[in-house]
Design brief:
The protein has 458 residues and is α/β, with parallel strands linked by helices. The protein contains 15 helices and 8 strands.
Length: 458
Amino acid sequence: MLRRAVKVVLLFALRVFFRRIEVVGRGRVPRAGACLFVLNHPNALVDPAFLLCFAPRRVSFLAKSPLFRMPVVGLFVRALDSIPVYRKQDETGDTAALNRKTFERAADLLRRGGTIALCPEGVSHNEPYLLPLKSGAARIALGAVSAAAGALDLKIIPAGLYYTAKTVFRSGALLYFGEPIAVEAAEPGPDGEPPREAVRALSERVAEAMRSLTLNADRHEALAIVARAERIFSAADEGEEEGDSLERELRRRRIFVEAYAYHRRHSPARVEQLERRVWAYEEELRQAGLEDPRQLSPSTVADYARVRKLLARVLVFLLLLPAALAGAALHYPAYKLAGVLATRFARQYDDVLSTFKIAAALLLFPLTWGALGFVLYGFVGWWGVLGAVALAPPAGYVALRTREEFGRFAAGTRAALFFVRERSFFRQLLEERRRIRRELLDLGDEYERAVASGRARG
């Protein structure tokens, strides 16, 4: 019962914090039998929350031991049937002996057809690439299969999390399940442990599968220029819309990351010239009041130039304005305080910032509703409490959605007015965007030809 309640609360929190959530490959996850999920770890406790809420199986987690000793977090960790993992920096005892018991518990659960999830990188981090994997996932999987009394059909399910901006409220997130990896038994060594060669080989297969589901840039600067180039590329696609899938965005960025790394080695001057063009193009957009390249679109201009649609949008905003203002006034103090507290506790570590933001919001927003109910109770009794509980959360959601839609409306209107005032400049920017897109395509084609040529020679 507690597990179900935790899942409902986390699902609600994720849906509010992230404006877009996509789950791809759920059909690849076996509906029965032993499974071991392996997940990349860029966003602290938000990462396992995604797997808990969106995996099609009931999942138990391997979690670091300090979490079990925390007053509130420990209750949630136990409610999720988690198994503690002991690290030398957290414990004073024999961590090797403690972890042998952890592996035995995990292997026993798998032999009973259960499902376990862990993050084999070992720590949450803010690097733009997958960290070297710890051997725990491979050791648990091989130990479970090798010690099974009969044949154990164990599958490792690689999963990748991609965040458009992991610390930004109302950004996007993609959970991507890859192809299952079958685990074959290996004869244990004299110490009862799986042989190192088998552990190493399975770990390499897992790492390769996880890299295929995640972005892997050599540095943050590369990831930033790739993100900027991808936005321009997608905006230049006449068939592209804001609703384009995050899966498609991830695929494009993966190709851009690989092509960028290749051309930085083989044609750095060309890459630097493209970077300068992208920077100059974005600067011109900012001067025109168009922050998002997608605003520079003939379809956007045509849509917002229609008087009937314009008036309909204005009417909707006017109708929603009272509820939106009430919801904003009620929730804004808690929203700002959650951000301040999260920033203070997270300090400079971006990989835990979202966790603190969500945790603070889950505490402060209910307190806000309770305070409103307490005030209204003094005026109208329990009807006031009921009204606060029933109306305050929807009012907050109306305020959030109205703010987002108004921002989109204002951006579209600016684009239409810019087109009316500066038609020749508008067309120049469109043409420059097409040229940048053409250059990106050429660089990508050259990289793919080089890869194909290397494979042919190999």
